[in-house]
Amino acid sequence: MDGYTTLHEMLASALKQAGEESGMLLGQELAIALSDSLTTSKTSYFGGLEDACFVIGVESREAYTGQFYLLFSLRDAIVMSSILLGIPPARIQEKKRLCIIESDDIDAFAEIANMINGAFNTVFQGSLPNKVHLKLLSPKKFIPEIDELSENEPLPEGDYLMFRSKLEMPDQELNYLDVLIPVGLGNQFDPPSEEPPAPPVEEEPPAPAEVGDAAVPPQAKAGEGVAPSPEEEPGSAEAGIDSVVVLEDDNDARHQMVTAAAVTGYQVVEGTLNADIKELFSGRNVRLVLIGSQDANDHELAVCIKVNAIRQNSPPPIIMSAQRWTRTAVLKALKYGAREIIIKPCSEEELVAKVRRFCKPPVQ
Known about the structure:
Blueprint: H1 5-26, E1 31-41, H2 42-47, E2 53-61, E3 66-73, H3 74-85, H4 89-98, H5 103-127, E4 133-142, E5 159-168, E6 176-182, H6 183-189, H7 208-211, H8 218-221, E7 241-247, H9 251-261, E8 267-271, H10 277-281, E9 284-293, H11 298-310, E10 318-322, H12 327-335, E11 338-343, H13 348-358
Parallel strand pairs: 7-8, 7-9, 9-10, 10-11
Antiparallel strand pairs: 1-5, 2-3, 2-4, 3-6, 5-6
């Protein structure tokens, strides 16, 4: 499949990371390696499908809008969910052979899908900062020759970019994970390159007499002696007032965090989790970021990704607090750049101690 180099690279990275993180969740080594890509249609894809599958929609929000789809073999879903539930190997093989999937399996597989979507969010938001947020939709089961295709089920009619990856796990025979992206959405993620403009016709070089003193010196043509734009100035991303950024939706919790951050002696700027991170960072040398949330879900953890995207070369340390943490959420937070995890509610003394650890007050 020609083109879509950037999209191919993002998916390869996202799938690899999804395998690593899902493997940690399962307690097994899991590799997801992108192996092939082609263009297809809904009719062609499902016309050649022999085994039952799970179709999981992923909604792309913010600047790039649309839905794409993850398609797993139903048997692979049974194997992975059963491992997560701790079911004995012999029973797993029996369930796989008979395609037995129970409500607990669906719940467990949804947790694995959340992990995969989290990896996708990490990579896509890192590559396309402030332009995309991916929300996982409920999985649908599709069984060939039993379930009928309709205009919008299990996914809409149209042409798709199909990216196929191989699932590999020790002692298990797994199939493929297919990512189907509508061509229109694929073009948003990775716009096709524009044709270069045609050269001017019959353009004559200036006569030597017209060049004279008005000619641009060779060194100026090479860019020497020309003042760089602000974006090109080294270190401009970190220039400005030494500051601490506090992000929290709850007013009382945010006030507590602002009070703790004030001990640094730096300027403290605050906002909600939906605040414009780029605007808060503008003109400031951000030394520390405090993020407060409720459930440490993907949307809240994505704030860490935005912070790192703004300061890719030297991201500031992040302290992430939440009332409810899961093992998966902790792993994600650390992977997304959090240097310290706090369970709320916490005392102001504890918060101050964490702040001092990463952002020592300046010498007076």
